[in-house]
Design brief:
single chain; 6 helices; 17% helix; alpha+beta; five-stranded antiparallel β-sheet; five-stranded mixed β-barrel; 13 strands
Length: 212
């Protein structure tokens, strides 16, 4: 499960692949976010037509066949075990994988983050919905997998995290063998360099924030 995360990283400390592709407009409007929820706009790294680019998308995948973008289902998570078979996700899994930068994610009143506080990549899928009037909506979902030993006491699911060295491999559009090579990345990540912080200790909770 991944229903809330944060991106508190300063602009100049964002992952290098993202910094290289940020447009001036995205740089001008960028601001650290302490709480990101489904339906919020999220910063995404994607590859399209052989070119890696950054984009703002809505968190919650809108299927391309949806007739009503407001009332149609928009899943914010996709199970790693079924992304290759479920109609909502299978085309995106083959052709439109993406990465969402995060500095932590929340589960049951706790923040999970790297011990060194560096940002990391959440694995995602994205889609572009085209309306009959020519309008476009780009949206995405976060892939989840079975929890490791760190997350298991909190939840049976956790987001898939992609290591820095695998960005191009993850984003690359390829054939069935390329997809097969990605499957090990979906099985989970080592908890060795991660920690869990209770929210009331991790941040001084403002009563107006109403985090949970």
């Amino acid at each position: 499960m991944c229903g809330q995360f944060e991106l508190m990283t300063k602009l100049e400390e964002l992952p290098a692949p993202l910094q290289k592709t940020l447009t001036q407009e995205l740089k001008n409007h960028y601001a650290p976010q302490a709480l990101i929820r489904p339906s919020n706009p999220v910063l995404v790294l994607k590859q399209e037509n052989g070119k890696i680019a950054s984009s703002l998308m809505l968190w919650g995948l809108l299927a391309e066949w949806s007739k009503d973008p407001i009332n149609s289902p928009r899943p914010f998570n996709a199970r790693a075990e079924t992304i290759s078979s479920k109609p909502t996700f299978r085309t995106a899994w083959r052709h439109r994988r993406c990465l969402l930068p995060a500095s932590g994610f929340y589960e049951k009143g706790n923040r999970i983050k790297r011990i060194d506080s560096k940002p990391f990549w959440l694995a995602g899928l994205w889609n572009r919905w085209l309306g009959p009037d020519g309008s476009e909506i780009e949206s995405c979902t976060v892939i989840t997998t079975k929890s490791n030993s760190l997350i298991k006491p909190l939840h049976t699911r956790m987001p898939v995290v992609i290591e820095e060295k695998h960005e191009q491999k993850w984003l690359k559009q390829g054939n069935g063998m390329d997809l097969k090579a990605l499957e090990p990345l979906l099985t989970g990540w080592s908890p060795k360099d991660w920690l869990i912080e209770p929210v009331f200790r991790a941040i001084k909770v403002d009563k107006q924030m109403n985090l949970f």
